[in-house]
Amino acid sequence: MSNLKVFIDVEDSRWAAAIADIAAVVDKVKDEVVKRVAGEVDFLRDDKSFSVNLCLSDDEAVHKLNKEFRNMDKPTNVLSFANIDDEMFDEILASEDEIELGDIIIAFDTMQREALEQGISFYDHFCHLWAHGLLHILGYDHMEPEDAAEMEQREIEILAELNIDNPYRDEE
After folding, report:
1. In this structure, are residues 115 and 124 in contact, taking their beta carbons and an 8 Å threshold?
2. 118, 125 Cβ separation under 8 angstroms
3. C-alpha–C-alpha distance, residues 72 and 76, integer Å
4. How do residues 71-121 score in pLDDT, each as one tens digit?
């Protein structure tokens, strides 16, 4: 559907057992994210090819990255490293036809635990975290309350199109 490709690296074999045809699920969520934000993310309208690297990993790997890059000595569910945050991004966008937008790493263990604690399916939680990470890669964040509200609304809309309940329903 879009000029955005996703390269998937499955580092933990539990992912294959947890979600059948992970590539199809990844593409379905990616297409919905792009459809929902294409009017807001100007560079997606460019006649260029974009890519994102998605790593399906475990707590140990995510813990190391979280400690190294965020100074947080614990695992987390998803990490996003957006190239849009690079001061050279505009120059790369202007000069290259193929642009790597960044990396997303999702930790199996934390994600599975959260899904159980929240009483939601592993599939639904994965779709949410993948959409969340991809929104970060496309320039959304939740550092300020108004930005958080906007990002959450995008996630709710994207997930609704995928027949997934509002993940923030208990916070309202």
Report:
1. yes
2. yes
3. 9
4. 999 999 999 999 988 888 889 988 999 999 999 999 999 999 999 999 999
Look up residue 122 and give its two tokens: 């592993």
CB contact set of 46 (below 8 Å; sequence gap of 6+): 93
Return phi, psi of residue 88, to 5°: -95, 0
pTM of the model: 0.93
User: Could you report the per-residue pLDDT of 36-83, keeping only the tens digit for each?
Assistant: 998 888 888 878 899 999 999 999 999 999 999 999 999 999 999 999
Residue 104 pairs with which residues in a beta bridge? 54, 80
Q: Which domain holds residue 29?
A: 4-171
In the chain, the number of structural domains is: 1
Residue 48's alpha-carbon distances to 89, 97, 103, 142, in angstroms, are: 14, 5, 18, 27
Which CATH number covers residue 123?
A: 3.40.390.30
Q: How far apart are CA 11 and CA 108, in angstroms?
A: 10
